[in-house]
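User: Here's a chain of 453 residues. Predict its fold as tokens.
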Amino acid sequence: MQEIHHKKVKIRTFVKEMLPLAIPVALHEFLMSSVHMVDTIMVGHISETAIASVNLAGQVFFVFILMMVGICSGSAIFVAQYFGDNDKKGIQRTIGLTLILAIFGGALFTIGAVVFPQEIISFYTKDTQVIASGVDYLKITGWTFPFVALSFVYGSVLRTMHQAKIPLFVSIFALVVSTGLNFVFIFGKLGFPAMGVEGAALATLFARLLELAILFAVMRFKKSVALAPMKRLLAFPHGFVAKYVSTNYPVLLNEMGWVIGVTLYNKIYAGISTQALTAVVVADNIFMLFFVFFFGTSSATSILIGNKIGARNFALAQEYAKIVHKLTPPVSIGFGLILFATSWVFPRFYGVEAGTLDMTIFVLWAYAFILPFKTFNLHTVNGILRSGGDTKYALAMDIGGIWFIGLPMALFARDVLHLPLIGVVIFLLSEEIIKTAVGFFRVRSGKWINRVI
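Assistant: Prediction complete.
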């Protein structure tokens, strides 16, 4: 009886620690994704071609963001453990090395988007109207990558240091600016010409610039540890870079392998029809409204468990991991039921045709069913395994699911069975069920706990 009470106390303690971190992170992720969602909804009132073109151009941004997630998730392992060990110099040198990687990556993406937009959009579709519109959007938004890289690194570090409200408030401002400018530039208000898709791109560019400027201003005002002099950011002791790279490269490979897989998913959908691609784009945007909360809880899980490992409290780290696995299924089932019940409402805001609307609703039903498995895997990989430095196992689990289950199943459903979109989606999502079992037993083993600092 006393043991049961003790476990309840631990669960309450974990939840009380997690929610103040999870809610701001979830809201921040929601606002970050909402910038693109606003573009999609507004250009949807122009045409379905505009929706498809903005989404395909947005795939480049999606690839970039996931590269940044890989870089920053890897560095967050160190920051969380350094924070738990109260090592400010360790935090600052981790920021310095992360900034080098992020800025270099941002510059490469800008070159690709601005110099080779035609080739990039043509990879996804042969629809000439979609390509032309997508090129217009990508050539402008391509300049945002270096600015987003800086914002992403500092936002990630601040959240890991339990200062999640700062990037949240900055993102709220960015969303308000982006929404207002979208309305003005896309439809030609306040004396501006109607620029359509190019207007959506300009609004995104200005919003990203303002977001970064305000983030730096707030950090300077708060005298944040994260905004350190260059000599501290680049003060790498012997062995630090090697340890950082050996821990982080599986995370980066994980995210890049995952995003290439998702990119190929979109290519498969586009191979069915532009209408099928549009339906998945709309369904993905709506699904994120329900899934984004779990980005917050998985990020908070990673921070808290990483703090415990940094403080050498390995038993509590393992207990927290078990608690996460107990709490995630019932909460995510509730979210899935709400998504299913409202699946006929949200797609109507996008102004798509009746056939596309029906396809979107069917896809949302499949997403509602798979939501508990997907959230369980998110917490296992991002929240637990990575916080303990078990990045190679997380890589094998995540990439194996996509490349050896998801992609072959999707191609089999489309090219061999000749199933409609909903059938392809169901076959593709089967990977999440298998990954759930693999992740569960790894966490129970305790082999994932490593103190990397």
